[in-house]
Design a protein that fits this description.
Blueprint (H helix, E strand, L loop, with lengths): L5 H8 L6 E12 L11 E11 L2 E11 L11 E6 L7 E2 L9 H22 L1
Antiparallel strand pairs: 1-2, 1-4, 2-3, 4-5
Length: about 120
């Protein structure tokens, strides 16, 4: 939904200029949703990746919501990430929409709801 914002946010935050490296999918953990009312099969996965910068290995996970297909692939699958040269543990993977995440969407929706409530209160 907010995918179109991702390149702009990456440039604005400076992450678009970070160096790239290959990260390897080490493990994929499926997180049960527990909501049986979903008509579309979605589930969250925590995809554990590792990468090496200057001989040191870093490990982190990318949490994403997936549908019926496995987006990240099987263990051993490689993706290209960008990492902060000053703090290589900090990484950025554009297809995961890390910057235009659900947290950003939640913030926008919350601000909108508060604006509506404020408008109603001021109207009365």
């Amino acid at each position: 939904m907010l995918n179109f914002l991702e390149p702009y946010l990456a440039r604005w935050t400076g992450r678009a200029n970070w160096p790239t490296t290959h990260a390897t999918l080490e493990e994929q953990v499926r997180i049960p949703q527990g909501d049986l009312t979903n008509m579309v099969p979605n589930e969250e996965t925590a995809d554990l990746f590792s990468w090496v910068v200057d001989g040191k290995t870093y490990v982190a996970d990318i949490v994403e919501v997936v549908g019926e297909k496995n987006v990240m692939g099987q263990p051993g699958h490689k993706i290209v990430i960008q990492y902060n040269p000053k703090h290589p543990k900090q990484f950025y993977y554009a297809p995961a929409c890390q910057l235009a995440s659900r947290a950003v969407l939640f913030g926008v929706l919350t601000a909108g709801a508060l604006a509506v409530i404020l408008a109603i209160l001021l109207h009365h």
